[in-house]
Amino acid sequence: MALGRKEIFVYAHWDGMEASFLMGSLFATPSRGKEIFSFEYDKGWLQSDYAQIIDPDLKLFEGAQYLTDEKSNFGIFLDSSPDRWGRVL
């Protein structure tokens, strides 16, 4: 694992699911004063009946997926991030 790289496990637990299901991992890697984000679906998730596209920038395939330089993170994860005031706190 790269120095300073963080792994965040992403789970689904939607209505109708008996338990949480690992969807994949979001990785944050420091690079030149900012973080580069990538996401990798869990193989079990991709093979499950629950597999679905959760973000327009994340396709349903194995392996790391990266964003273009114009975007700082995947939209689905930005929606769950603290806003400016939350970061100040």
How would you describe this protein?
7% of the residues are buried. The protein has one domain (6-88). The protein has a 4-stranded antiparallel sheet. The protein is elongated, with a radius of gyration of 14 Å. It has 3 helices and 4 strands, in the order βββαβαα. The protein is an alpha+beta fold.
SS strand fraction: 25-35%
**What is the C-alpha radius of gyration, as a whole number of Å?**
14 Å
Number of helices: 3
Distance between the termini: 30 Å
The helix content is 10-25%
Largest sheet, strands/sense/barrel: 4 strands, antiparallel
Supply the helix-strand structural class. alpha+beta
Secondary-structure element pattern, one letter each: EEEHEHH
Number of domains: 1
The total beta strand count reads 4
Globular, elongated, flat, extended or rod-shaped: what is the shape? elongated
Average pLDDT taken over every residue: 85
Strand order of the largest sheet: 1-2-3-4
Spans of at least 5 consecutive residues with low confidence: none
Essential attributes:
31% strand; alpha+beta; 89 residues; 4-stranded antiparallel β-sheet
Summarize this entry quickly:
The chain has helices spanning 43-46, 75-78, 84-88; strands at residues 6-12, 21-31, 34-41, 65-66. With 89 residues, it is an alpha+beta fold. Strands 1-2-3-4 form a four-stranded antiparallel β-sheet.
Write the topology of this structure:
Blueprint: E1 6-12, E2 21-31, E3 34-41, H1 43-46, E4 65-66, H2 75-78, H3 84-88
Antiparallel strand pairs: 1-2, 2-3, 3-4
